[in-house]
Write a structure and sequence with these properties.
Strand content: 15-25%
Radius of gyration: 36 Å
CATH topology of the largest domain: BirA Bifunctional Protein, domain 2
CATH architecture of the largest domain: 2-Layer Sandwich
Largest sheet: 8 strands, mixed
Number of strands: 16
Helix content: 25-40%
Distance between the termini: 135 Å
Length: about 450
């Protein structure tokens, strides 16, 4: 008998259930806040292409004025030592007291963004020994200036001025000549509706007695003065006459007039200036309360207003004599007269009166290239035409003929020259008259001469 071992009953093995794993969370990148758009600084303005016609028009007229009157161009730095403007413009003026952009550079020097042009021109005259040149020295400039003030109509923190300075001669004929030139300039721009305001503020000797009378008058009316003018009353009462506050303006008609305090030399000088204006048939208004806002002015001062009324912040041009400025800045006694024009204000007035300004000159020829071989060849053709004094344009980034012809029409070109693969192989080029649409094929080597013949 075969023995069979007894087999124990095997218990059922429990199979562990698979552990359910938690779902893996998707990795989500933290939200990154896009950077905020950088904003234009308050009181500053972009000059866009749509405005360029006005700027180019004015600049062309300024150059004509400079050339016809013998002014040479000068450019001074935008940054100057603070003391230049403190000494030249005056500690008690609004410009120095409130409006200058002043900071300390990394070398520890206190510098300022230039708030006006005459002080820097005077500094340059002294620095470069222009006194040794034939006098008078006539200089003109164009550029940006800066004043930290509340932005408003007619006033920006960065603004542009053109200035004309005649240095080294005290003859009153120069005073009249500068004013006549300014009036003519505005007429040439199409701004005939202007008023020339003229006054004399005498020399420092004249002004001392006048200031006493002025102080006495405004002291009696002190409650009616604005807060700024109450301070000016103690420091420089002449500045009250330049205040734009309505209550202060109302006091001006009763104030003493400086014309009554001029000494004989200043009175004779001013009389001759007015005689020159009369003889030139230039209309003007004798304004006894015109003083200008800077301390360096002496004798003749003037402004050009848009229309007959004082429009406060819309004065188009201002100037006068600064016979003592060179001495203040450490130079020799040197008489001088100058004026400055506000470019943004002029443009605003041109727009206000809807004065048409010439559009930028349109190109004579547009170069159209079809395909890479043609583009390579047209790059040199473009330069050849430009060196031949032909005003030329292109749009080489476009490939199709249709889009390039659209660009030619947009630019207003008279002719389009077309170079494609066939023309490159044949050594030819196409000239298309954009008005008539007529095309002709010519030898590539004759293109410059042919275009100059067609353009006259």
């Amino acid at each position: 008998m075969v023995y069979m071992p007894k087999i124990k009953k095997i218990k059922k093995i429990k199979v562990a259930k698979p552990v359910k794993k938690a779902p893996v969370a998707a990795v989500v990148a933290p939200k990154v806040k896009p950077p905020e758009a950088v904003q234009l600084l308050r009181g500053f303005k972009d000059v866009l292409p749509v405005d360029s016609a006005y700027w180019l028009f004015i600049q062309d007229k300024l150059r004509e004025l400079a050339i016809s009157h013998g002014f040479e161009a000068i450019e001074t730095p935008i940054l100057e030592n603070v003391n230049l403007f403190v000494r030249a413009v005056g500690k008690q003026t609004d410009i120095v007291d409130k409006e200058m952009f002043i900071f300390e550079d990394r070398g520890g020097e206190r510098v300022a963004l230039r708030p006006e042009g005459t002080a820097a021109i005077a500094r340059a005259y002294i620095t470069h020994g222009m006194l040794s040149q034939p006098q008078p020295v006539k200089l003109w400039y164009f550029g940006p200036f800066f004043r930290y003030e509340r932005p408003q109509s007619g006033r920006l923190r960065e603004f542009h001025q053109a200035g004309f300075e005649i240095i080294g001669d005290a003859n009153p004929v120069l005073d009249a000549q500068l004013m006549i030139a300014a009036v003519g300039f505005f007429h040439d721009l199409g701004l005939g509706d202007i008023t020339l305001q003229v006054n004399s503020i005498g020399c420092p000797k004249c002004r001392e007695k006048f200031k006493e009378a002025l102080t006495e008058y405004f002291r009696a009316n002190r409650p009616k003065l604005c807060e700024d003018c109450k301070k000016r009353l103690l420091k420089n009462p002449l500045r009250i006459l330049d205040c734009k506050n309505e209550s202060c303006i109302a006091l001006k008609p009763g104030a003493p007039q400086i014309i009554d305090w001029l000494d004989d030399d200043c009175k004779n000088h001013f009389t001759r200036v007015l005689e020159y204006l009369d003889d030139a048939n230039v209309a003007y208004v004798l304004n006894p309360y015109l003083v200008r806002g800077l301390d360096y002015y002496t004798r003749t001062v003037f402004e050009i207003w848009p229309g007959e009324e004082d429009r406060g912040q819309n004065t188009l041009c201002g100037g006068g004599r600064f016979d003592g400025l060179m001495e203040i800045l450490g130079g020799r006694p040197t008489p001088a007269i100058g004026m400055a024009m506000g470019i943004e204000r002029i443009i605003s007035r041109l727009r206000e009166l809807a004065v048409a300004v010439p559009a930028p000159r349109k190109p004579d020829v547009f170069v159209a290239a079809l395909g890479e071989p043609a583009k390579k060849k047209c790059l040199q053709l473009f330069e050849d035409l430009r060196h031949a004094q032909i005003l030329v344009s292109e749009n080489f980034s476009r490939d199709g003929l249709k889009s390039q012809l659209e660009s030619a029409n947009k630019f207003g070109a008279r002719y389009t020259v077309i170079l494609g693969q066939k023309e490159v192989s044949d050594g030819t080029i196409i000239i298309r008259d954009m008005d008539s649409g007529v095309q002709e094929v010519i030898d590539y080597t004759k293109i410059v001469g042919e275009l100059k013949k067609k353009l006259g």
